[in-house]
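Try this one yourself first.
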Protein backbone atom coordinates (compact mmCIF):
# COMPACT_ATOMS: atom_id res chain seq x y z
CA UNK A 1 0.00 0.00 0.00
CA UNK A 2 1.49 3.31 -1.06
CA UNK A 3 2.56 6.02 1.36
CA UNK A 4 1.10 9.47 0.68
CA UNK A 5 2.84 12.72 1.61
CA UNK A 6 0.28 15.42 2.45
CA UNK A 7 1.29 19.09 2.41
CA UNK A 8 -0.33 21.51 4.83
CA UNK A 9 -1.46 18.63 7.00
CA UNK A 10 -2.59 20.87 9.87
CA UNK A 11 -4.69 23.13 7.62
CA UNK A 12 -8.33 23.00 6.60
CA UNK A 13 -7.85 20.70 3.64
CA UNK A 14 -4.65 18.86 4.51
CA UNK A 15 -5.76 17.59 7.91
CA UNK A 16 -8.93 16.15 6.38
CA UNK A 17 -7.07 14.54 3.49
CA UNK A 18 -4.59 12.97 5.92
CA UNK A 19 -7.35 11.67 8.20
CA UNK A 20 -9.41 10.30 5.31
CA UNK A 21 -6.41 8.46 3.83
CA UNK A 22 -5.49 6.97 7.20
CA UNK A 23 -9.10 5.90 7.70
CA UNK A 24 -8.91 3.67 4.60
CA UNK A 25 -5.53 2.25 5.63
CA UNK A 26 -3.05 4.34 3.61
CA UNK A 27 0.09 5.42 5.51
CA UNK A 28 0.42 9.20 5.59
CA UNK A 29 3.40 11.50 6.01
CA UNK A 30 1.70 14.62 7.36
CA UNK A 31 3.88 17.59 6.41
CA UNK A 32 3.72 20.99 8.07
CA UNK A 33 5.95 23.63 9.64
CA UNK A 34 4.62 22.66 13.08
CA UNK A 35 3.94 18.91 12.97
CA UNK A 36 1.75 17.49 15.67
CA UNK A 37 1.79 14.12 17.42
CA UNK A 38 1.60 10.84 15.50
CA UNK A 39 -1.70 9.00 15.32
CA UNK A 40 -2.73 5.70 13.78
CA UNK A 41 -1.49 5.68 10.20
CA UNK A 42 -0.22 9.28 10.30
CA UNK A 43 3.44 10.23 10.75
CA UNK A 44 3.96 13.97 11.23
CA UNK A 45 7.03 15.36 9.44
CA UNK A 46 8.48 18.87 9.45
CA UNK A 47 8.25 20.67 6.13
CA UNK A 48 8.73 24.34 5.30
CA UNK A 49 8.58 25.79 1.79
CA UNK A 50 11.01 28.49 2.92
CA UNK A 51 13.59 25.97 4.22
CA UNK A 52 14.68 23.52 1.53
CA UNK A 53 16.77 21.61 4.08
CA UNK A 54 13.47 20.14 5.35
CA UNK A 55 12.30 18.82 2.01
CA UNK A 56 14.25 15.62 1.35
CA UNK A 57 13.66 13.99 4.73
CA UNK A 58 10.03 15.07 4.66
CA UNK A 59 9.19 13.30 1.37
CA UNK A 60 11.40 10.26 2.00
CA UNK A 61 9.51 7.06 1.21
CA UNK A 62 6.51 8.83 -0.28
CA UNK A 63 4.87 7.06 -3.22
CA UNK A 64 2.46 9.93 -3.91
CA UNK A 65 2.34 13.64 -3.13
CA UNK A 66 -0.70 15.75 -2.26
CA UNK A 67 0.21 19.39 -2.89
CA UNK A 68 -1.93 22.28 -1.76
CA UNK A 69 -0.29 24.87 -3.96
CA UNK A 70 1.19 28.27 -3.14
CA UNK A 71 -1.28 31.06 -3.72
CA UNK A 72 0.81 34.19 -3.34
CA UNK A 73 4.40 33.34 -4.30
CA UNK A 74 5.69 34.40 -7.70
CA UNK A 75 8.17 31.51 -7.73
CA UNK A 76 5.59 28.89 -6.68
CA UNK A 77 5.97 26.86 -9.88
CA UNK A 78 9.74 26.68 -9.45
CA UNK A 79 9.39 25.60 -5.82
CA UNK A 80 6.97 22.83 -6.69
CA UNK A 81 9.19 21.61 -9.52
CA UNK A 82 12.16 21.40 -7.15
CA UNK A 83 10.11 19.61 -4.48
CA UNK A 84 8.91 16.95 -6.91
CA UNK A 85 12.50 16.43 -8.02
CA UNK A 86 13.61 15.50 -4.47
CA UNK A 87 10.86 12.86 -4.24
CA UNK A 88 12.02 10.35 -6.87
CA UNK A 89 9.85 7.54 -5.49
CA UNK A 90 6.64 9.56 -5.81
CA UNK A 91 4.98 8.36 -8.99
CA UNK A 92 1.74 10.30 -8.58
CA UNK A 93 1.29 14.01 -7.84
CA UNK A 94 -2.13 15.35 -6.87
CA UNK A 95 -2.43 19.12 -6.84
CA UNK A 96 -5.22 20.98 -5.05
CA UNK A 97 -5.56 24.03 -7.27
CA UNK A 98 -8.71 26.17 -7.51
CA UNK A 99 -11.80 26.43 -9.66
CA UNK A 100 -11.16 28.43 -12.82
CA UNK A 101 -7.36 28.20 -12.84
CA UNK A 102 -7.42 26.15 -16.04
CA UNK A 103 -9.07 29.15 -17.73
CA UNK A 104 -6.65 31.74 -16.29
CA UNK A 105 -3.83 33.31 -18.32
CA UNK A 106 -0.83 31.02 -18.62
CA UNK A 107 1.26 33.61 -16.78
CA UNK A 108 -0.94 33.58 -13.65
CA UNK A 109 0.91 32.04 -10.64
CA UNK A 110 -1.60 29.22 -10.11
CA UNK A 111 -1.69 28.44 -13.83
CA UNK A 112 2.10 28.17 -13.81
CA UNK A 113 1.87 25.78 -10.86
CA UNK A 114 -0.58 23.57 -12.73
CA UNK A 115 1.73 23.61 -15.73
CA UNK A 116 4.69 22.60 -13.54
CA UNK A 117 2.76 19.60 -12.21
CA UNK A 118 1.63 18.53 -15.68
CA UNK A 119 5.23 18.77 -16.95
CA UNK A 120 6.78 17.03 -13.92
CA UNK A 121 7.21 13.69 -15.65
CA UNK A 122 5.03 12.01 -13.02
CA UNK A 123 1.47 10.80 -13.18
CA UNK A 124 -0.67 13.75 -12.14
CA UNK A 125 -4.21 14.70 -11.17
CA UNK A 126 -5.48 18.22 -10.51
CA UNK A 127 -8.38 18.98 -8.17
CA UNK A 128 -9.95 22.43 -8.52
CA UNK A 129 -12.26 23.08 -5.56
CA UNK A 130 -14.45 26.15 -5.27
CA UNK A 131 -14.48 28.37 -2.16
CA UNK A 132 -14.36 26.20 0.96
CA UNK A 133 -17.30 26.29 3.37
CA UNK A 134 -14.90 25.86 6.30
CA UNK A 135 -13.57 29.38 5.70
CA UNK A 136 -16.72 30.56 7.49
CA UNK A 137 -15.77 28.91 10.80
CA UNK A 138 -12.09 27.95 10.68
CA UNK A 139 -10.26 30.78 8.95
CA UNK A 140 -10.22 33.95 11.05
CA UNK A 141 -8.35 35.93 8.39
CA UNK A 142 -10.97 35.27 5.72
CA UNK A 143 -14.38 35.22 7.42
CA UNK A 144 -14.61 33.45 10.75
CA UNK A 145 -13.53 36.23 13.14
CA UNK A 146 -15.83 38.86 11.62
CA UNK A 147 -18.74 36.42 11.62
CA UNK A 148 -18.07 35.38 15.21
CA UNK A 149 -17.30 38.81 16.68
CA UNK A 150 -19.39 41.19 14.58
CA UNK A 151 -22.00 39.08 12.81
CA UNK A 152 -20.64 40.29 9.48
CA UNK A 153 -19.73 38.43 6.32
CA UNK A 154 -17.49 40.73 4.27
CA UNK A 155 -17.71 40.06 0.55
CA UNK A 156 -17.66 42.70 -2.17
CA UNK A 157 -19.62 40.40 -4.42
CA UNK A 158 -22.96 42.00 -5.22
CA UNK A 159 -25.45 39.39 -6.38
CA UNK A 160 -22.80 37.15 -7.92
CA UNK A 161 -22.73 33.51 -6.86
CA UNK A 162 -20.32 30.78 -5.85
CA UNK A 163 -20.93 27.05 -5.49
CA UNK A 164 -19.20 26.64 -2.11
CA UNK A 165 -17.80 23.16 -1.42
CA UNK A 166 -17.33 21.35 1.88
CA UNK A 167 -13.66 20.60 2.58
CA UNK A 168 -14.63 17.06 3.55
CA UNK A 169 -15.84 16.50 -0.01
CA UNK A 170 -12.48 17.75 -1.27
CA UNK A 171 -10.78 15.23 1.03
CA UNK A 172 -13.03 12.42 -0.19
CA UNK A 173 -12.21 13.34 -3.78
CA UNK A 174 -8.49 13.39 -2.97
CA UNK A 175 -8.72 9.91 -1.47
CA UNK A 176 -10.53 8.67 -4.57
CA UNK A 177 -7.82 9.88 -6.95
CA UNK A 178 -4.91 8.90 -4.68
CA UNK A 179 -6.06 5.35 -4.01
CA UNK A 180 -7.01 4.30 -7.55
CA UNK A 181 -5.07 4.40 -10.78
CA UNK A 182 -7.71 5.69 -13.17
CA UNK A 183 -7.35 9.46 -12.73
CA UNK A 184 -3.94 10.18 -14.19
CA UNK A 185 -3.76 13.17 -16.52
CA UNK A 186 -7.17 14.49 -15.49
CA UNK A 187 -8.54 17.56 -13.76
CA UNK A 188 -11.74 17.81 -11.72
CA UNK A 189 -13.81 20.84 -10.70
CA UNK A 190 -15.16 20.32 -7.19
CA UNK A 191 -18.26 22.30 -6.22
CA UNK A 192 -21.18 22.15 -3.89
CA UNK A 193 -24.67 21.29 -5.12
CA UNK A 194 -25.87 24.88 -5.61
CA UNK A 195 -24.48 28.34 -6.39
CA UNK A 196 -25.35 30.95 -3.75
CA UNK A 197 -24.88 34.67 -3.27
CA UNK A 198 -22.94 35.76 -0.22
CA UNK A 199 -26.16 37.31 1.10
CA UNK A 200 -27.80 33.87 0.89
CA UNK A 201 -24.80 32.39 2.71
CA UNK A 202 -25.15 34.96 5.50
CA UNK A 203 -28.85 34.19 5.78
CA UNK A 204 -28.20 30.44 5.98
CA UNK A 205 -25.56 30.83 8.69
CA UNK A 206 -27.80 33.23 10.63
CA UNK A 207 -30.75 30.87 10.43
CA UNK A 208 -28.69 27.95 11.72
CA UNK A 209 -27.03 29.90 14.54
CA UNK A 210 -29.98 31.94 15.73
CA UNK A 211 -27.73 35.01 15.58
CA UNK A 212 -27.89 37.95 13.17
CA UNK A 213 -25.28 37.63 10.42
CA UNK A 214 -25.36 40.13 7.60
CA UNK A 215 -23.59 40.30 4.28
CA UNK A 216 -21.42 43.43 4.03
CA UNK A 217 -21.21 44.13 0.31
CA UNK A 218 -18.21 46.40 0.74
CA UNK A 219 -16.58 48.53 -1.92
CA UNK A 220 -13.11 47.39 -2.88
CA UNK A 221 -11.15 49.73 -0.63
CA UNK A 222 -13.26 48.89 2.44
CA UNK A 223 -12.91 45.23 1.57
CA UNK A 224 -9.14 45.56 1.21
CA UNK A 225 -8.93 47.32 4.59
CA UNK A 226 -10.96 44.50 6.17
CA UNK A 227 -8.56 41.84 4.91
CA UNK A 228 -5.54 43.96 5.85
CA UNK A 229 -6.67 43.92 9.49
CA UNK A 230 -5.94 40.17 9.48
CA UNK A 231 -2.22 40.94 9.75
CA UNK A 232 -1.49 38.74 6.75
CA UNK A 233 1.12 39.89 4.19
CA UNK A 234 0.15 42.40 1.53
CA UNK A 235 0.50 39.70 -1.15
CA UNK A 236 -2.20 37.64 0.57
CA UNK A 237 -4.51 40.67 0.81
CA UNK A 238 -4.10 41.36 -2.89
CA UNK A 239 -4.67 37.67 -3.64
CA UNK A 240 -8.00 37.84 -1.79
CA UNK A 241 -8.98 40.99 -3.65
CA UNK A 242 -8.15 39.28 -6.94
CA UNK A 243 -10.43 36.39 -5.98
CA UNK A 244 -13.32 38.81 -5.57
CA UNK A 245 -12.64 40.18 -9.05
CA UNK A 246 -13.25 36.60 -10.18
CA UNK A 247 -16.39 36.34 -8.03
CA UNK A 248 -17.82 39.39 -9.80
CA UNK A 249 -16.90 37.79 -13.14
CA UNK A 250 -18.93 34.67 -12.17
CA UNK A 251 -15.86 32.42 -12.34
CA UNK A 252 -17.06 30.56 -9.22
CA UNK A 253 -20.72 30.20 -10.20
CA UNK A 254 -20.61 26.87 -12.10
CA UNK A 255 -21.93 23.69 -10.48
CA UNK A 256 -20.45 20.32 -11.48
CA UNK A 257 -21.11 16.68 -10.63
CA UNK A 258 -17.41 15.83 -10.16
CA UNK A 259 -17.74 15.28 -6.38
CA UNK A 260 -20.55 12.79 -7.01
CA UNK A 261 -18.63 11.08 -9.79
CA UNK A 262 -15.42 10.72 -7.79
CA UNK A 263 -16.80 9.86 -4.37
CA UNK A 264 -20.11 8.15 -5.07
CA UNK A 265 -22.01 10.56 -2.82
CA UNK A 266 -23.69 13.89 -3.39
CA UNK A 267 -21.74 16.97 -2.28
CA UNK A 268 -22.70 18.35 1.12
CA UNK A 269 -24.85 21.46 0.99
CA UNK A 270 -24.29 24.74 2.81
CA UNK A 271 -27.48 24.02 4.77
CA UNK A 272 -25.98 20.73 5.98
CA UNK A 273 -22.72 22.43 6.93
CA UNK A 274 -24.47 25.31 8.72
CA UNK A 275 -26.72 23.03 10.76
CA UNK A 276 -23.72 20.96 11.84
CA UNK A 277 -21.26 23.76 12.57
CA UNK A 278 -23.28 26.84 13.52
CA UNK A 279 -26.40 25.49 15.24
CA UNK A 280 -26.45 25.53 19.07
CA UNK A 281 -26.81 22.13 20.67
CA UNK A 282 -30.46 21.59 21.61
CA UNK A 283 -29.80 20.44 25.18
CA UNK A 284 -27.89 23.39 26.57
CA UNK A 285 -27.63 25.94 23.75
CA UNK A 286 -23.85 25.40 23.71
CA UNK A 287 -22.13 23.98 20.69
CA UNK A 288 -19.65 21.23 21.36
CA UNK A 289 -17.51 20.42 18.33
CA UNK A 290 -14.69 17.94 18.31
CA UNK A 291 -11.59 19.42 16.75
CA UNK A 292 -13.25 22.63 15.57
CA UNK A 293 -13.51 26.06 17.18
CA UNK A 294 -16.67 27.22 18.90
CA UNK A 295 -18.07 29.91 16.68
CA UNK A 296 -20.55 31.44 19.09
CA UNK A 297 -20.78 31.54 22.85
CA UNK A 298 -23.93 30.02 24.37
CA UNK A 299 -27.09 31.99 23.63
CA UNK A 300 -28.56 33.63 26.70
CA UNK A 301 -31.91 35.34 27.07
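Now uncover the answer:
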Amino acid sequence: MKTVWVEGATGKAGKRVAAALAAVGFPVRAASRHPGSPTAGITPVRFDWADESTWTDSVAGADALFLKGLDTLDDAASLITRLIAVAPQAGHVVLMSALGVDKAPATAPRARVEHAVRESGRNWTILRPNWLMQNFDEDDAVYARAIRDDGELYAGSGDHRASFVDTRDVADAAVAVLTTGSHHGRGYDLTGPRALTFAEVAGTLAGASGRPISHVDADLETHRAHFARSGRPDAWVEHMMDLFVHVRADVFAPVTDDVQWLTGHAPRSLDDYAREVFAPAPDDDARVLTGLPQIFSPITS
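Discussion: DSSP finds twelve helices and eleven strands in the chain. The first strand starts at residue 4 and ends at 7.
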